[in-house]
Amino acid sequence: MTKKITITLFLGLVFGTTFAQNLNTAKLDSLFQILEAKDKFMGSIAVSENGKVFYTKSIGKDDIETNKRSTIATKYRIGSISKMFTSCLIFKAVEEKKLSLDQTIESYFPTIENANKITIGNLLNHRSGIHNFTNDKSYLGYNTQPKSEKEMVEIIANGKSDFEPNSKAEYSNSNYVLLSYVLEKTYKKTYKEIVASKIIKPLGLKNTYFGNKINIQNNECYSYSFNEKWKRETETDMSIPMGAGALVSNPTDLVLFIERLFANKIISQNSLDQMKTIKDNYGMGIFQVPFYDKKGYGHNGGIDGFSSVLSYFPDSKLAIALTCNGQNYDNNNIIIAVLSNYYGKKFEIPTFKTIELKTEDLDRYLGEYTSPDLPLNITITKDNLKLFAQATGQSAFPLDATEKDKFEFIRAGIKMEFNPKENQMTLYQGGKKFHYQKK
């Protein structure tokens, strides 16, 4: 149940209207081949233009233990892409005059701090101030166990507020869990029934549904993290994320969903315009996706080692869905490769080549680094032949040596270049660079 999509490239213009026939599928195939060969990615992708899917690919395994390979029919937990479905359901209820974006939530959740000030709209665009329960260390102590509405509301209420409602925006899964319960109270049905009857069945989404315990026999897959080898992740009980992250789907269903959304087959144009209105980086269940001069919309997701990206570029009627059950490479880089290919932009297939260093070679990089550009200090340590970096308040991550004085953590798109003589380090991430000085 992760945050927003960031795809930012700064140079160039895009011309033309139809590009699918010019897609270099062989080059994309080569990208996925090396991702699989180097244990960088397991998952599926679908790309469509004007409602027609013209590229699909699936690599990796649904179940490593039984060696069951993934196919384009494999279904994944999609995490926070579920929020787009929940937002659509809220707007449908508004269109049916069952709800109002301006109504406050005290009648639903009287124990929530500031409930008399928080509106349905504030929940949708993350301006409620309600604390995000998945940020708490205690979350991983109960996330695999089923929870009732009463228990979840109590957990969320105990988290209190992080800021005054509507004073700013901050991502919180709590908002969409509460919206799920609002829908259930409104329609007197379960969220599972509501999303099935109002979106899934009308659109003919055959591989999308409210999740349960993972069932490999039903073309679902387990999720994995990578540390020298793939390790299976635990499973969150879907009664916890609800409409914030409990749906299962696959790429071909997801591109159909987002195409229908922008064709006004789910909600009206007026509702879609409100959904797309960005304030302090957040829409109502949707984010902007910039690429050169193009403006896309979508959401991403992450839960239990699953990760996913869904985006749509209205001018080109281009939809891309990526679902993943094993990530050792930044999904953003894959999406950029696909978009670059589609729009005729250059992109390089990574080689993932590394160099080996002796443990004494790493000593020159060790220490704590500070930056005038970022409030986070970075401490560089080593464990035998491996260098590690750790930002203030965050977990340590390994660095692979790619060239002399150059290292990367490719899963997060991080590169570091050291200048030992000057006791300096430059951090590259998200198209930006930050200068650090060793203390």
Automatic annotation (TrEMBL):
Name of the protein in its database record: CubicO group peptidase, beta-lactamase class C family
Signal peptide stretch: 1-20
KW Thylakoid (keyword) present: no
Superkingdom of origin: Bacteria
Domain Beta-lactamase-related: residue ranges: 44-329
UniProt keyword terms in alphabetical order: Signal
InterPro entries: AmpC-like, Beta-lactam-related, Beta-lactam/transpept-like
Keyword Signal: yes
